Structure formats: C-alpha cells, structure tokens
Amino acid sequence: MHLLEPRPQPSRRMRWLAPLIAVGLTLVTGTLLFLALGKNPLQAFIVFFVQPLSSGYGWSELLVKASPLILIAEGLAIGYRARIYNIGAEGQLIMGALCGGGVAVLTDGMNAHWILPAMVVAGALGGAIWGGLAAWLKTRFNAVETLTTLMLAYIANYILSYMVSGPWRDPGGTNFPQSVMFGDSALFTVLIEGSRVNASVFITAAVVLAFGLYFRNSFVAYQLEVGGQAPDAARYAGFSAKATVWISFLLSGVTAGIAGVGEIAGPVGQLNLNISPGYGYAAIIVAYLGRLNPFGIVWSGFLMALLYLGGEAAQVSLQLPSAITGLFQGMLLFFLLGADAFIDNRLRRSKKAQAAKAAIQPTAAAPTSPAALPHES
Amino acid sequence: MIELLIPVLAATLGAATPLLFAGLGELVTERSGVLNLGVEGMMLIGAIAGFACAVDTGLGAWAGLAAGTLAGAASALLFAIPALSLAANQAACGLALTIFGVGLSAFIGQSYVSYSLPGMQPLPIPLLAQIPVLGPIFFQQSAVVYLSVIVFGVVWWVLARTRLGLLLKAVGESPEAAHAIGYPVLLVRYGATLFGGAMAGLGGAYLSTVYTPLWVQNMVAGRGWIAIALVVFATWKPSRLLLGAYLFGGVTILQFHAQTLGIKVPVQLLAALPYVATIVVLVLISRDRRLLQLNLPASLGKPFLPG
C-alpha cells in the first residue's frame, strides 16, 4: 500500500516535469473516456484542441478566456506560496463584478471617461473587501480559510442574484435577472475588430510583469513565504504572521475583483448570473499547474482556456455536455498532485533490491526522519 | 403557533439528514487523521449515481441509495490513492475531488434533467407516531431519516466503546506510534476514507432520490462544505454533530417557511442564510483555541509515509 519512499533530495527536474506528466495522463484518460462514449478519440481531440485554434477568432477567444484565469491565478499563487488556501476566488470575482457593475448601473446613460477607471477601482475594492473578510475571520477568530472563503463565495452569489433580480434589474427589460446592457463608457475598448479581445488584457499583462519581475524578488514576497512556511521563524525575524494573511487575501481579492470587472465590462457587458463559468475555481488549478510561478501561470492559463474552448466545441460538434471541461479540470489536478508526490519521493524499491544496494554501499541508506516528510506542493 | 411549527420541525429532520450522513462520514475520516475536502464532490457523484440508478432500473429509491453509497465510496478512492498512497497534499486532493465531482455529475446528469422520481412514502412508527406534537415531528418520517439516526448511533458506539474506534483514534493521533506498534495505519485510513465517501454518497443520493426528488445540476449546493464545517463545529464528537446537523437543517428550512412565519426578507438573502450561519458557527468554535484543540486529531491533514 505504501508506494513511495523519500528521495534524499527533492527533484528539481520532477518539479517542472510533473505538469507535463499530468497533462499527458489527462490526455490518455480522455482517450479512454471518448472510446467509452463511442466517440472517435482522434476526432474528439481535433475538436477539443485543434478546431478552436484553427481560426483567428479562435485564438482571440483563447485570449479572452485566458486573461481572467491568469489574472486570478497570479493573485492566488502569492497566497498559496505563503500557504494561505484561498479557494473562494470565485466569490471575490463576483463581488468585484458587483461593485464595478454597480458603478456602471448607477451611471447608466452618462458619458464620461472616468466611469471605466472608477469601475476597475470599485471592482478591486469589492474583491479586496471580500478577501479581507476571510483574512479578518482568520486573523481575528482563527477560522479556517478554506471553509470561510467558500462560504463567502456562495454568499456573494446570492447577493448578486438579489441585486440583479431586485434593485439593479433592467427596468426596461424582461423579467430575467440581469442589469441594463452597459454603455460604451462602461466597457473596455475592443482591440481587434470582430473579436471580443479588449483592453483588459493589458491589466493582466501588467500584473504578470509586475509580479514576475518585481514582486517575486521583493522583500514582501520573501516575508510572505517565510511567514507561511515557518511561522515561528517569521516571528523570530520580526515578520508578522497576521500581515502575511492580510497581504495574501487583499492581493488575491484585488486581482479576482478586477478580473470580475474585466468580464462584465468586456465579453458579458452587463451584470447577470452567468458572469463567470467557474474561473475562480479553475484559477486554483492554473496556479498549481504553473508551479505558483508568475510566468509559469501564463502558459497554464492558456492551457485551461483551451480546455474551456474545447468544452464549448465538444458541445457543438460532438453533442457532449460542456461540463466535460470540469471533468478534465478535476482529472488534471488529480494527476498533477499525484505527479507532484514524486518531487520529494520516489517509487519504493523492493526489499531485495534495497538489501542488494545496502550491501554495496552500507552507509548510503540513511533514512530521513518522518517528521521531515510532509510537504505541500 | 405549535400547529405552525410542527411541519417546520418535521421538515427540519429531513433537511438535516444529508448533512448528518455526510458529516458523520467526514468525522470518521478526520478522526483517522485524513482531511478530505471532497465531500461536496462525493455527494454530487452519489446524487447522480443514485438518481440514474433509480431512473434506469426502475427499482426505486432504495436501489438509488445503494448505488449512491457505492459511488461515493468509489469516488473516495480517487482521493485516497494520491492522498494516502502517494502522500500528496490532502487539502488539494480533496479540492480536486470536488472539482471532478461537480464536472462528472453535470456531465452524466445532462441526460437526466427532465426526469422525476416518486420519492419515498413516510413510514409512521406504530404507536409513537400517535403521540401529539412529538409524533408528527419525529415518527412520521421517511425510513432514511431513521436510518441516519441509526448510523449516528453506530458511529457513536464504535468510536466510544470499541477497539476499532480506539484504533481509529490512535491512528489519527499518532500514526508513527500506531505504526511502530504494528497497526496498519494506511489500511485504517483507507477504510475511514471509504466510509466517509460512502456516507457522503448516501447523503447525496438521499437528496436526489428522496428529498427533492429530481436531478438538478449542482443540487448539493454547498452542503458538502457545510458538513465539513459541522465536523469542526462538533469538535470531532458525534453527539455534537447530530445537534449541529439539526440546527442547520432548521436554518435551511427557515427560508421556505419564512413567509408563513411572517419574516419579510428577500428570498435570495434568506437562501444565503445557511452559509452565513456556517461562518458564524466556525467563528464561535475556532476563536476558542483550547476548545478546538481538545479533540482535534493531532495528525489531521498530515500525510504519513513510513520510512
């Protein structure tokens, strides 16, 4: 039942190989799944991964979907490096969208240049408040953040539902729970004619560069990492564990909130109940798949975006439910975590092989103490 | 007033039942030192497996419940292999199971959206059901509600009174010590995890084949997460879990009876109440670190690999 034994040293190669192995295993399992469903796997893979990228429009849609995923994952990764498990980015996204969208709804009919920047600021604030709430619950009351952030995500969804079916419902519209369609001054400029790619991708690019070039090497980032991984050492060095929690949550709240504004002031164009197809949850996988590295997250974000596009294409061409995307997301994370186990461990060798090896090098078999083993990916 | 409250309290027991099943399962899992955050996913897999089985075989709710239980246990295995045998991060593996379960259940459920099941007739218990007030509340429920109380009794008894319970707690407290004495730590953890999955699956199948009884995408609606929170609220003790489940059953039911009780709050905000309440109880328990630590399994969430 025990399949592994610790490596003498963590494998650096495995750290970057694990995501590739995970993607490979997901493809293999996907093939089996398509076979079981009576679909031609080759055709399915063409529909999933080739067809979406065979047109310029497809590539532009890839960018539209990758941008929010990358933006959210950048914020989450900072927390995860500090071992703060914010898994409710979906709620922070919704609150950001709600606050940003509120500005648009209240200024409906106005034409001013300040509206869109105000929406972005309001969205960042909304996300930060929702993230900050979890930080407060954790630092003040010791409430575990995995549960509180998730509960807050459900609550955010109901608040959104209330606002778009009550106070902010489109008065001239049908009875659907949705706000007015936003005017031009509340929308990001479309960059490429005929596509949905808009100026919000510059925010994502700026965040990637800022986190990748500056923040990652900054003293604050170092403090965060120490504060999360060795709270006692951090306290000794004078770093505050509470500050770690607050910074992690505020940063991930801000990025998720802005991503929410990017959706409502971009492809969605209004407040409704379908702002996000689970971007906040998918971004968790994006962050891990990108090794919590600001640049690694860019490629994993595009991969996840392709999975979303593939799911939509599969619905049209293969008559498969688009929920297949979620199925692949879960598999991908499972395989990644399994492959990650091989960073610190290796397959257990049989007793005989071990004895033979010990006979050759009697001193090499120094077992690591079990206390040193538990690791978090 | 009593006449108004009787149906509310009776419905509370039904609403609490999935939470009680899933919570008891997670409590046993956590007592062995394993933190499985995949309860929501396992409940969804149990819900769709139960519903699909009941619809396709026509054998009724009991067949659905059995299928949901099995499917829940099978899905727990997906968590157990990386989290236990490969010693991967348990929190992340549980999250993967939830994401997978949401996707899988929606994928399979697509073709079951338009069906509905007859549900299950209540089973009044002779004599007891005739007691005024208490009878209609406690003894005119569906058989599954009684089953959940039996499962509670068994879990309580095993944990408090048997060698098996002692072994389970020993493994959760100190896997190193249990391993050194010669107990099969991983086997115990596999067993506890599969039991947790089976109970979550049963809770999910109850929702889709007895309680609703329909299939709606994401119909578990956070109950899996609430069940995990209830285990914390219960400070890992079955009797407090029972209390917590009925408390939350009541909170869930409140939104449907708010109007008759004269509460004027928009429906969406009332629907958010169970999630707000979850945060409140988490805060109440967690702020007292001593109380929280009292029964907290010492090795909870930490992988175990013998050297």
Summary, kept brief:
The complex is a heterodimer of chains A (377) and B (307). With 377 residues, chain A is mostly helical.
What would you note in describing this structure?
Chain A has 377 residues and is an all-alpha fold. Chain A has a single domain (4-344, 368-372), classed as ABC transporter involved in vitamin B12 uptake, BtuC (Orthogonal Bundle). Chain A has helices at residues 12-36, 41-50, 56-81, 89-106, 115-141, 145-165, 200-214, 219-229, 231-236, 241-264, 279-289, 296-317, 324-344, 351-360; strands at residues 4-6, 345-347. Chain A has a two-stranded antiparallel ribbon with strand order 1-2. In chain A, α3 (56-81) crosses α11 (279-289). The longest helix of chain A has 27 residues, at 115-141. Chain A is globular. Chain A starts with a strand and ends in a 17-residue tail after the last helix. The model of chain A is unreliable at 362-377 (pLDDT under 50). With 307 residues, chain B is mostly helical. Chain B has one domain (2-221). Chain B has 14 helices and no strands. Chain B has helices at 2-31, 39-57, 61-85, 90-109, 134-138, 143-161, 163-173, 175-181, 185-211, 223-233, 238-257, 267-271, 273-286, 289-294. In chain B, α1 runs antiparallel to α9, α2 (39-57) runs antiparallel to α3 (61-85) and α3 runs antiparallel to α4. The N and C termini of chain B lie far apart (64 Å).
